[in-house]
Amino acid sequence: MAIGKKVRRALVFLLVSINVVILGGCWDREEINDIAIVLGIGIDRVKNGNIRLTVEIAVPRVIGSGQMGGTGGDKEETIIRSGTGVTIADAIAQLQERLPRRLFWGHMKIVIFGEQAAKVGIREHLDFLIRHPQTRTRCNVFVGKGSAKSMLELIPPIEQSASEVLREMAESRTLMRKTAKETLQTLNSEAETVLLPMVKVLPPPKGKKEIETIPFIYSTAVFKKDRMIGQIDDYITRGVLWIRDEIKLAHVTARVPGERGNITSRMIRAHTDITPKHEKGRWKIIVNVTSEHDIILNGTKLDLLSERNIQRIETELEKDIKRRMRSALDQLQKDMKVDVFGFADAIHKKYPSRWRHLKKRWNDVFPDLPVELNITVKVRRPGMNFPPQGVPEQEVKE
Amino acid sequence: MENEKITSVQMMMLLYPAITATAILLVPGVTAQHAQQDMWLSPIWASLIGFLTVHITVQLYRLYPKKTPIEYSVDIAGPFFGKFIGLLLLFFYFHVTAIIIREYGEFVVGNFLFRTPIDFVMGAMVFVCAVAVRSGIAVLGRLAQILVPVVILLLTIIVILVFPDIELENMFPMFENGLLPSIMGAATPQSWFSECFLMAFLLPHVIDENHGRRWGNIAVVSIMLTLFFTNLATLFVFGNITASFVYPVISVVRYISIADFLEHVEVVVMALWVVGVFLKISVFYYALVTGLARWLNLSQYEPLVFSVGLLLCLLSNWSANDLVELTHFLGTTGSFYLSFVQTVIPLFLLLVAKWRNRAASPQPAVSHQERK
């Protein structure tokens, strides 16, 4: 009897084990060697309004073994394929024809829109990316100067793929960073504007092949609704980032009146509050910035041990930050007339009932909206030295 | 059938997944459509129905100890109407269980197993649940005691992992159009809370039945907190686009990325979430099968389990044409359907019972309560 029981148990166990083998993934079983892992995609608009989709696909064997074998170099770590169609989904169908493996979207890190595609509108493409059950809403979105394909084709010297380069660049937050989710959120916000980082190809150093370089973020594309209407340079972008409370990295250089030389500080952290005010029937925006800095370069003869000098420096840094913000306001508010600063949302959040009336004439009100900038800079630390370096002691000003 | 015993803590652990498991799927999206940035408030309104249902259920149980609704409806409304109400409840649970199975199937097929036939996904789940239900309530209770703490821990971890991405601004403007949107948003979750009526089928098995009320209320509070925090986390991450997602919570989980390293956590979430749904379906399934056995005056319910399971598979297939129809049903008529059967009918039974007891002999009912 005991043996019979054991045999029965073994049989049951065997049956269950067999089930585990055949039921894994059911009809959706996909082996790792049957899928092509998409790292990044580029969306371009080509002739007769069609969409050209370019995908960068990881070649797993090469990436897995890496450069350790020492044979690397000639072998590319990613491959580029394109397909065209009326929509992205349509283009994917054509792309799939040209690939032996099934496209897998779970690791897609970046999306680049070609300039032409961005000017026509990106909503349809974003819809696909959000609706797809495999894609991540966290992927970074860019606009490529020229075609998106040319960015993905590059073979970067350090990172494994152009997609990885761009993702790292966006995450370093030197300029704009927008994930697909954030893009949709701003598109759905009260102002219906979007800012996306713009990338172009870094000219390769002499002696290198034309494609042995990287794409980099150099400016910012401005969208009204889902269409790109213009672009702002890095200086203006930083001004916008200060106002939007999205600045993460900033160096501020100022001159102190009456002194020769520059002082540069590094921002440690900053916080911006946008407060809308309604006074005597007129709207007004008050932007309060508090920012903490460390001095990283002192080209003047001022001794940083003196509280008076620090206060003078703080005042000048404040002026410089204000200038940046003001020039951003001048270009975007006065010239381009797009509310990328989040003023509309700030009013909506503070005065929801008044916003309902204001919303209809917001486009007329916004360009003439007075904006007050209050900036407080606190210099916390002078770096490793108090007095300026290389200056005789008697010349140092306290 | 009556010999199996669970503790009141196990009852709470069965009620918790019986409501939350599917309440974090379609419900947040439906809530967000009505309540928008006030969606975090809706579970709190909705929980009022939960407390009310627990109160009604416990009151009825005190009047008719050791009896389930199938039996005391006969005592209250007479043999004909009582049996009719019992049949109504059975048909209701039959339908609702099928809908839950369908929700599960739609979710798995829509998010993970795209090419797998939905009937297969649902059939596999029904089979597992059938085996669990056959094993009896004591087994279910112990299963819940082991699994539910893991599920709660997991939900807590998710909420913590979402922290780097939260945007408190998304909460404002609070109460833009008054409190009405958040109350409207509560319409769907309140029908989930009315499922607390399942307690009525579990209470006869609870050893420490005098703690039933306390643990029932603890279940409602913990469910309310779970929905509150998941809604809040979803709102903080997605803000104004929350309503556009079919399954906002899973989309939030997919968004999690800690230091570019901890990503793609939804697979773990899925694995444990399936556990929650397994418990949910089992509890409903158990209530249905034991209810049917009692209605037919059978001494055992086990022989019914597999045949009812087959019918459940069929009905879940018929319960909706597609996801749109299912969501529409749950967001509109379904809300009133669920709370009508599980809250309004028991309330009606309770009122009749009180009135009858008073008419017949006022003392016993009162003294019975005082003894507790």
Automatic annotation (TrEMBL), chain A:
Keyword set includes Signal: yes
Q: Where is the Spore germination protein N-terminal domain?
A: 28-200
Q: How does the record classify its membrane topology?
A: Lipid-anchor
- Segments forming domain Spore germination GerAC-like C-terminal: 220-383
Decide whether keyword Membrane is in the record: yes
User: Where in the cell?
Assistant: Membrane
Keywords in alphabetical order: Germination, Lipoprotein, Membrane, Palmitate, Signal
Which InterPro entries does the UniProt entry name for this protein? GerAC_N, Spore_GerAC-like, Spore_GerAC-like_C, Spore_GerAC_C_sf
Record family assignment? Belongs to the GerABKC lipoprotein family.
Tell me what this protein is called: Ger(X)C family spore germination protein
